[in-house]
Input
Amino acid sequence: MTDFTPENILKVRDDREPVCFKRIEGQDTGKSAEFELCDGTFQPNWLHNVANFNTRTLRERIEPWLTALFQSEHLSLLAGSGLSTAVSLMATSKNGAGMDTVKFPKYDVEINVAALSSAKAAGRDSVNIEDQIRVANELIRGLEILNKGKDASTLQNELKTILTRFANSVLAGETAIAETGQNKREEAFNALVTFLMSFASRTGTRDRVNIFTTNYDRVIEIGAELAGMHLLDRFVGNISPIFRSSRLNLDMHYNPPGMRGEPRYLEGVARYTKLHGSVDWVQTPDGIRRIGVPFGAKSVEPFFDVAGFSESAAYKLMVYPNAAKDIETAGYPYVDLFRDFAAAICRPNSTLVTYGYSFGDDHINRVIRDMLTIPSTHLVIISYDDRLGRIMKIFKEWGRSAQTSLMIGPALADFSTLSTYYLPKPAIDKTTFRMSELLRQRMGTADSSSQSDKSEKEAVMEGNKL
Output
């Protein structure tokens, strides 16, 4: 590998090392995109004696590989901020809510110094609002221990205001998507549905796909709703769902017509976990509850004007580890959420796909690294870019090249391109499988539909001629 940062990086199947390539400059955007290898990168076997290649070539290389990986015994998706950004860009041409830092009227310098130290420990050179809020919560608890109740109360009030603004900025990103033009919104939501269904289209007898996200918004939830997916999480109830620590592995079944006593697993079901909390979670005296904030709401304040919620306010919104009175609740509910994450991916024959995750959370990275100590696991990293170089740094440091696939760059991870060309078919397609078997029996060769250069329609026409 050379020291420069290439535009696109691909490593799948039996590639010995990542392949770096870029789009040919001056190309007419109306034509099929063509690419060339970056200077200094090695010539892979699948591009032997080929100077230029296009999306079709990449599809032949990537789609069968991802389709095989998605049929692993255990499949998980970890979606970072890049997913919300991709949907927002498609719908509104804007990035959506950011993680920019804020200014605290009091203890601002102390909070930023400690936040920077925390960020560097996690491998990040800059501070974000999460670092600041985490430190502010710890500082509140410290001031209470020092019997500086007035300072603790002042800082707590400041934190309420900051959290409310941050929550409203997250909602503003949702509102922008909800209020954009119908054509753009439908285009973005269709791509989101295709993306999610590529993961959820597993037969009911297989282990459910696990969807994890570090985002506070409800982009995945609205996508699942449009797709008709059923999301199973730790919340129980309908009017005001409450978080439960006991996970009973609840599932969904149905009774086929004419059959009694033999329920079957329902398809299109996924287990869902928001690792960092959500914009519609609040901490109440009886536990963590999810409030009914509609997608596209302007503000969270009106939804606190409910008996039992008024004391929660925005201070306990999104459920950061708050300055609790007793240490036992300090990590609640994060200890349960991360236990689910580790249990889902750290087991044999497991595949984890990350999309839009920049590997900036050390507590998440540790679990992924532990997963890769199991030889039959595989990690697929899909990211629009690697501006900070963290992904390639981790790829080299971990040294698990054979268990890692890379798809980095706009030619590979653009949301629309990825959903259209590279992800598996977003449906449980048993018909194609049966057709493949029929053609194999008739022709004595592999089905042409498994090759990306022929469409399924061409394969059917070829079979009809026999």
